[in-house]
Every structure is written in C-alpha cells, then in structure tokens.
Fold these 4 entries.
Entry 1:
Amino acid sequence: MSNKVLLVEDDLSISEMVRDYLLREGYDVTAVFDGIEAETAFKQGSYDLILLDLMLPGRSGTDVLQLIRNQSLVPVLIMSAKDGDVDKALGLGFGADDYITKPFSMIELAARVKAAIRRAGYPAVAERQNAAAGRLVHLGELTLDLDNFAVTKKGQEVKLTAKEFGILKLFATNPGRVFTKSQVYGFVWNEDYYGDENVINVHMRRLREKIEDDPSHPKYIVTLWGIGYKLGEF
C-alpha cells in the first residue's frame, strides 16, 4: 500500500514538481494550496506524512501545524524559503519533525520524506511488540504495564495518578518524538490547550519526583528548553 502524503504548497510550480516526483516514487499525494484547504484535507483524510509550507494564504503554516499537532502525531516536514535559525526553531518548536529550505533537490526531499515516515513507524512497531509481550514497556529501571495502568521501578510499585501515568505512557510509546506542552495536554487531557503551563509543570514535577533518582536532573523525560519534552535514551 502506498504511503499517503498531504502536500501543502501555494506555489503551483513547486507543488507540481514535488507532487510529480513523489508520485513517480510511489507515494499517493494529495495537493492543496492554502491553509484553509490544508485544514479541511487533514480533517477529512488520513496521511502518513504532511509536507507543509510556512507561508500560506488563508491561514499560516504555523497555525495549520498547531491544529495538526493538537490532534495527530503524523510526521510533518516543513518547507520554507526562510533559512534563519529563528524560523527553524519556530517550526520545530510547534512540533514539526524536520525542516527543509527552498530551493531543495528532489533527491534530498525524497530522502527526508522516507526517513520521516520510517521514524514514525517505530512507535507502531513497539506497540505491536508490547501487545505480544503482554503490553509491557521497559525503560531503564521502570516497567510500564499498559493494560493494568501500573508502573514498577526496580520491582517496586510506583503509585501514579491517571494523568501522571498518561504522561509517562505518551512518552514511553513514542520514543524519539518531541512533544510541546500543548501537545502533552491535548493527548493526555484530550482537551484544547489554553496556555496554562502551570498544569503541565505541576504534573511533570510530581511525575519526576516519583520516577527519577534525581528529579532536578531527569533521565526518563528530558526537557528541551523552549520546545518541550522527549523520552530519554536508554
């Protein structure tokens, strides 16, 4: 089955060039040309990757990206003519998985598309392996029982609240993925995020106090300053 790509690019010549190349590479490509069309296509379809220009008519690429990230973990590859570090940090800080600067070669774009889709497949593989093994996830000295909402550390029970377990599970089942605070809130609370960082800060602090040897220097869920959090490496 072909991987499905949503291409969001308002420049017709670039859109046709990218679409035609990816079609030849075997991808199923849906092309839209403004931010409003992008949001509609995202809501109505299911995609393995989204190629997203930042400078869009109708609605900005960052607004589209925030909508996507509040509802989905689908990999997003930013395409932009802006090459400043601020723009890259902005794109990745909102939850993009990768960033490519225009003009780019089709070979480089295809390689990045393939890599982003491959990386996104790792959590699904891990979930299938967990299911076959009783849905246990091992992280260093921690073991998560996903079916019974239980956590142990060195064989000893760690008592977590439902939200604390939800946060830990989110990172444990998505290794390598970076989550902003709004994304953590959206996936764990299943509600729209209104910018109250204190809620996330309190729950993250309490979780770290329970699972970390040194909460001030966490190793299980690490902070990426100005961006969000990710699972530590084990």
Entry 2:
Amino acid sequence: MTIERRLAHSGFTLTRDYPAAVARVWDAFADEQQKLSWWGAGDAMEPGEWAFDFRVGGRDIAEGTFHDGPVSRYEATYTDIVEHVRIVTTYDMWLDGVHMSTSVASLEFEPAGAGTRFTHAEHGVFFDQFWDGGKGREEGTRGLLDALGTYLG
C-alpha cells in the first residue's frame, strides 16, 4: 500500500472561564498528581506510559489504549513557562505507532474576577493519512478542558 504524502494545517483557540483562582488552575497543570487527576480522565482509555517533567526543556508523555481500538501517544516539550501566566509546548501525536501530527500550543492564565480566564491556542501540522486536518483534535481538547472544569469544581 502506498501512502500519499501530504500535509494539512489546522488551528483553533478555546477560551474557558473557570471559577477558581489562577494559582489553582495553574497547579492543575504544574503539579503531577493534580494533572493525573484530570488529564485523560474517564473510562474511554486504558492508561499506559506516563512521564511528567514540568520545566522549560522538560518532556511529558501520555500514552493510552482506547477500549475500542487504537493506542494514542502524546509527547510534549515545554518551550516556555511563566508561572501563573503561560505555558507553551510543542507536541507530537501518534496513533497506533504512526506519527500523526506536530503542534504548538499556548496556554494562557488570566485573572477574571474571582476566577480564571484560560485560553488554549494551537496550530498543528497533520501528516499523510491524517491530512483531514485533525478534525478530532479540537474536539479532544474541548474534552480535556471540560475534564479540567469538572476537576476544578
């Protein structure tokens, strides 16, 4: 089988207002135990390899197997961290061992009254058979932000 070599670019921005102080929302990303409590939470996936190294140049890995099929692998490198202000990562995704995409994501934390306005902006490059532009990427990120909202209460 020949794979058609092509690229697709996709970007999106999601904003959420959480009823928690910036430090609390920040800690949900910066503290490993807190991140484990909500990142990929749910019953749709059996967790696999996990690594957490929250520092500029540090790498995170989150791998899991969906109960109905494929193995998803996320590998991120932190490129910029300003405490309580922003986190910037580059990350790669694989599906069943096939390199799916490379993305740059920025996470911004701003006070909004007694809570936090959180903004996730992302631009991805999707490879070959994933050239549909990663239609599920924005949906998956929405799910993560919903899980974060549930975690924050």
Entry 3:
Amino acid sequence: MPEGYPEIPEDVPQIFRAAMRRLAASVSIVVAKGDDGPVGMAATSITSLTVDPPAVLVCVNRATSLHALLVPTAPLSVNLLSRHQQDVSAAFGGGVPREQRFGIGGWYEGGNGLPALEGAQANLCCVIDAMLAYGTHSIVIARVLEARISDDVAPLIYQDGAYL
C-alpha cells in the first residue's frame, strides 16, 4: 500500500461486499472478439462516461476469459438487457457453457462485427480507447461508435443476488 494511505481494517472487504449487494444495478452483456468467435459475460459495473465523445466505462475482472481479449482499439459490444431477458443474463453469468451462450436470445451482427442482442434496452457498438488496472479488475473506457435503443424502458435490474 502506498505510503500515507490508511490501513484497511480486516472486516471491511466482507462488509463492503455486503454493502455493494444492496446497490441495484442494470444488467448488461459485454461482448468481445475471440479467436474462436465472440466471448461474452454478464456485467453490472457499466456506466456512461461522457457524451463528447460518447463513451462508457466498463469494469471487468482480470480473471475472466473476456478480459484477455480487451486491448485498445479492439471492438466491444455492450447490450443493456430488458426485464424479460433474465435467461440471457443467467446464461452469460456462468449458467451456460461459454460456447452455448449465444444460443440464448436472438443475436444479430452489430456495426462493429460483434453480436448485438435483439430486444435489449440498448445496444452499443464500441471500440476500446483505454484501460486502467485497479485491484482485481480493469477499468475499460469504450468509445461508442453506434447506438440503438428500444422504444420501451424496462431494464433488467439485479440486486442482492436476485432480479427485481
């Protein structure tokens, strides 16, 4: 730990994890291009960053198979799930083997060549601008090159291990 920073009490990580489970978040599927086809994962750590240029911030655990595919200038697809897409979230959250995940839900080819999910709240075709390692994760800044939105506003929300 850098000099001058206070020590973190031993019980804080466990309490912090419990606190963050109380934070309701929209569920998205993040997709990158792999050697054998697309690779995707469910994520709740996504937020808008700027409008000029249009960009999102995505936090990805460095232990995931998706992380190895994330490098500056690589394409990235971000699909904000609709309330009726719990099956897609569960599949990409690890409930289905990686090679079978894109069989759940309807997918089409987005503007950056990656799969985009039909019926999602929004689909963002992006390119990775920058990455910053922090703890167990990388903070990925992705520039949005194309966006598509649904007419209905009914996001899939996840909190404390369940969908709301």
Entry 4:
Amino acid sequence: MEVETDQTTKVKKARKNQSPWAIARRKFLKNKLAMISAVFLVFICIISFLAPYVTTADITRVNVGEMGLAPSTDHWFGTDKSGRDVFTRLLYGGRISLVIGMSCTFLIILLGTIIGSIAGYFGGFVDGALMRFTDFILNFPFLVFVIVVNSIFIGKVNGVWVLIGIISVLAWGGVARIVRSKILAEKENEYILAAQSIGCSPIKVIIRHLLPNVASTIIVQASLLFASMIVAETGLSFLGFGVPQTVPSWGNMLSVARETDTLQNKQWIWVPPATILTLTILSINFIGEGLKDAFNPKSAR
C-alpha cells in the first residue's frame, strides 16, 4: 500500500510540473468524443485530397445515358441529373469545401490576431482607430457584398479564391476583439513590463511574449471558425452566390435539393453530401469543445 501511495504521489507531482500545453494535450487525448471526431475529420481530409487516386471518374463529363441513376455497383451513390457520378463529386466537392474552410480560417485568424494584438498592446489612439474600423467591418452587409463582388468578378477570375477573399476580409472582426481583450489583460503582467524595461521592441514583445500566452484561445477560436466557414460556403453556394456551379462543392451538390423532384424522388443526389457535411461540422465542433475543455484550467477532466 505504501508503494502504491508513493507512486501515486510521484504521478501527481509529475503532472503538477507539466507545462500547460502538456496538460492540455493529456486532457484532450482523454476526451473520447474529441478523439473520434479528430480521426473522422482526418479521414475525410485524406480521402478528399486523394480523390484523383481514389476514383478515376470524370467530374465534368455529362453522360446523357446515365442521368439520375439510382445507386448500383457501377455508381455507389448513383448519378446526378447530368449523369455525373455522385461519389466522385462528393470527394472532389469535399476537397473544395475543406480548402475554402481552411483558407478562410487561416486568413481570418491571421488578420484578427494582427489587428487585435496591435490594438491591445498600443492602446490609446491606435486602439480606438482599429476598434472603430473593426466595428465597421462587423456591421458591414456581408451577403450583399458577396453578391455584388461575385457578380463583378464571375467568369473573370477564379471564383473559389474570390469567395475566400471576400469571407476572410469581412469575418475577422470577432477574432480581433477576442485577441485584443486577451492582450489587454496579459500585457499588465510583470514579465511583459520586464521585457519592456530591458528595451524589447513592441514587435518582439507581441510575438515572443504575448502571443504564446494567448495561443490557446486563438487555437480554440480557429477550430470553431473552421466549421463556420464550411457552413458559410455551403449556404452561399446553395443560394447560388458562392462557388461557381462548374466547380463541385458540397454546397453546389446540395443546391439541387431545391428542386421538388430531386428532393422527393432522387434522395441519393443530395443525401450523401448532406450527411457528410453534417458529420464533418459535428466533428469540428466536438474537436473545438475538446480543445476548449483541455485549455480550461478549471476543467474537471
């Protein structure tokens, strides 16, 4: 019994001496729902990005003789109204939707972190000017701007990158406010005052001292944003203002569900993308909740 007590005491001491990142990693790995979601998301990403090696069917070829076929051994998920293989378009569509979600998330986090860090660190006039600009961005009519810009650039440039740019430019405001509030609280600590007293430049203080201490909040926000960006792409494409119809995406595949005949009699055309989209969004949200729980020092896990 004494040996077991000593071992338990050593384990508790070792855990107390762990860094916050090590503790968060251990707590996240113990979250079964988050781990299952992470495995599923990785699987979806791998199979989508390796689509050319998984299937050899042409995603653009219109086959009049195979229009609207039900699932079979030749077409696992059937064909759409243009005779294109639904399974193939599902994989290629996942690649587009995931790329848009990842790219938008990266750009939003980058812009929001830069502006929020500068505003929070310098304060005063700089903070006021940047936050008023952030308020303007947050109040900007998102849908109207997307429709107008999409109408201007349609057919002239790559519609996917136009959509990524529009969403990223209009969606960083929330991240900037969160980062600013964290920086304002963190910069009052003694180690920041010490770094300033020895002559560290503002950029060095922000990058080397402040951002590492607010990184956990940024990571959690990024995981939740990823799901939101995929939903945004899907909604815009469903309405016809997102990814061009010639480019397969989960949103474009779901847009056919607006037709009554397809919705009622040809469920194999829209049910697979709807199912995969729902499971992907749930997985990302569960991962986000797992990260939030892992980085929460008051968590009971």
